[in-house]
Amino acid sequence: MANGKRPQTTGEHIISLYGHVTGVKKDVDNIRCTQKHIHEDIDKIHGKVDKLLYILIGALISGVVAIIERFN
User: Fold this and answer.
1) Is the pLDDT at 12 greater than 90, yes or no?
2) Rounded distance, CA 28 to CA 69, Å?
3) Is 7 helix (H, G, I), strand (E, B) or coil?
4) Cα–Cα distance measured from residue 47 to residue 3, given in angstroms and rounded to the nearest whole number
């Protein structure tokens, strides 16, 4: 029914179903490809967040050490 007409014969129904199956296969392939790219992006962000966390922890530790040294 892609062209707006309802299939009349069995052959037209089969062709219509084949078109739907082909469309679903393309959609599944697109989802798989998109999922792979999203996974790669999340891995990149994960690495950046880890680096930021290490920097914050290091700054916090150095600040605490500086405060302790000041009072000793």
Assistant:
1) no
2) 61
3) coil
4) 49
Backbone angles phi, psi at 66, to 5 degrees: -65, -40
With 0.70 as the threshold, say if the pTM is over it. no
Structure tokens at 13: 């129904």
In the structure encoding, which two tokens stand for residue 9, read together? Answer: 């014969």
Which residues fall within 8 angstroms of residue 13, CB to CB, at 6 or more apart? Answer: 7
Region of 6 please: left (phi>0), alpha (psi -120 to 50) or beta.
Answer: beta
Residue 1, pLDDT above cutoff 70: no
Measured CA to CA, the distance from residue 60 to residue 66 in angstroms comes to 10
Query: For position 67, what pLDDT does the model report?
Result: 94
Angle at 26 between CA 10 and CA 19, to 5 degrees: 15
